[in-house]
Amino acid sequence: LVSAVALTPLGAWAADKTVGFSQIGSESGWRAAETTVTKEQATERGINLKFADAQQKQENQIKALRGFIAQGVDAILLAPVVATGWDSVLEEAQDAEIPVILLDRKVDAPDDLYMTAVTSDTVYEGEVAGKWLVDTVAGKDCSVVELQGTTGSSPAIDRKAGFEKAIADASNIKIVRSQTGDFTRAQGKVVMESFLKAEGAENICALYAHNDDMAVGAIQAIKEAGAEPGKDILVVAIDAVPDMHLAIAKGEANATVELTPNMAGPAFDILDAFWADGTLPEKWVQTESKLFTAEDDNQAIYDMKKGLGY
Ligand code: GYE
Fold this sequence. Notes:
Blueprint: H1 4-7, E1 18-23, H2 29-44, E2 48-53, H3 58-71, E3 75-78, H4 87-95, E4 100-103, E5 116-120, H5 122-137, E6 142-148, H6 154-167, E7 173-180, H7 185-199, E8 206-209, H8 212-224, E9 234-239, H9 242-249, E10 255-259, H10 264-277, E11 284-287, E12 289-293, H11 299-307
Parallel strand pairs: 1-2, 1-3, 3-4, 4-5, 5-11, 6-7, 6-8, 8-9, 9-10
Antiparallel strand pairs: 10-12
Bound molecules: beta-D-fucofuranose.
Residues 27-28, 30-31, 104-105, 155, 183, 211, 213, 238-239, 259 line the site of beta-D-fucofuranose.
C-alpha cells in the first residue's frame, strides 16, 4: 500500500497553512529584498503569511510573536533584531507547539526553543572581507575604519570577529575606529563623517562596513570630504545589493560578500517536510557566501557597467 505521504508532492503539505513572520523592519535594501522574496515564496506555495514589521524594535517582535501564538498560527518565522532576550517568548511558542524558524540572524537561546536557523555563516563573511583586504594591500600599512551592524545582533558580533581573525596576522593592517551604523545608509554616512573628521581622509586606507547600505552612505561622506572612494579609501562590505554592484561598477567601491535574500525558501521547504511526516532539520541550515569584486566577471557588475555605458 503506497502511503498518502508518498503520493502527495513535496510542497503540497504547506498549502493553506498560516505562518506568522516577524520581520525586523526595512533598515537596508537587503532586508527589503528578504521581505519581498518571503512574500513571493509564501504566495507560490499557497501559504497564508501574516507579516509584522517591528521597526527594528525587539519589543515589537515579541508582541508580534505573542499575537501569532494567540492566533494559533501553524509556524513562525523570526528574523531576530538582537541575539538576546528571546527565551520566554520562544518557550511560549514551544508550549503552544508552534515551530519557530530563525531567518538570517541567530539567538543566544537553548536550541530546543527553535526548529532551526536559516542563515549565512556571518563569521566567514567577515573573514572573506578581511582576507580580501589583506591580499589587496599586500603588506602596505593600512588604517581601517569599521562600520558595525546593529549592536548586539549576531551578524554584527560575528562579522567583527571574522574580519579581526582574517587580519590578525597582518601587522600592517589596524582597525583605528569602529562604531555601529545600525545597518542603515543614513547612520553609515553620519558615522563615516565622524571618522573622517577624527582621522583625516588622507590617513584612512580602507572602510569595512558590515553591510552595503552603510557602505553606500559612507561613500557619500568620503566624496563630500574630497576623497575618492574605491581609490583613496578602499571600500569592502557585505550583502551584494544592486547599489553596491553599481558602486563597484563605477569604481567607488571594491568588494562585497553576497548574502542571498532567499532564506524563506529553505524555511518553507523545512516546514513542508515537517508537516508531511515529522522530518526535523539540522539546527543550522547555512546559505552560501561569495565574494564579488570589480575583477569578477560577474553578470551583475557587467550589466551595471553596460548600463553606465562603460
Ligand atoms: O547583512 C543587513 C541587514 O541580518 C544578515 O541585516 C542580516 C543583515 C544584513 O540589516 O543588510
